[in-house]
Amino acid sequence: QVQLVKSGGGLVQAGASLRLSCAASGRSFSSYVMGWFRQAPGMEREFVSTVSWSGGRTYYADSVKGRFTISRDNAKNTVYLQMNSLKPEDTAVYYCAASGSVRDVLSPARRYYDYWGQGTQVTVSS
Questions:
Q1: 16 touches 2 (CB < 8 A)
Q2: Number of helical (H) and strand (E) elements in the chain, helices listed first
Q3: Which of 126, 108, 115, 49 is nearest to 82 (CA)?
Q4: Within 10 Å of residue 46's Cβ, how many Cβ atoms?
Q5: Running DSSP on this structure, what letter comes out for residue 5?
């Protein structure tokens, strides 16, 4: 069982940066593929980014590629999402997620992730 606790988020202007953090409790954090998703009002929850067990492989949604960076620190049981050049369309509630799959596979599918943190609001004003 993994519990995910997020921090970060807030209200910023377009072009600014924010960093989200997600700390995991429980054992074997380094054996979980970690992901970030977001959900805007009235929209489906959508994939943002994911990172492999070691942090050596990452995958991004096209909408954030080149602006967002996912990383993890297995010694601190924490995954990060550095968000640069934020746009109003990035406004959403952001969620971190963990996959308990026995395979170190990156996936954008929500069903791949077993554990979810509470959402944190990111609002980007124009």
A1: no
A2: 0, 11
A3: 49
A4: 14
A5: E
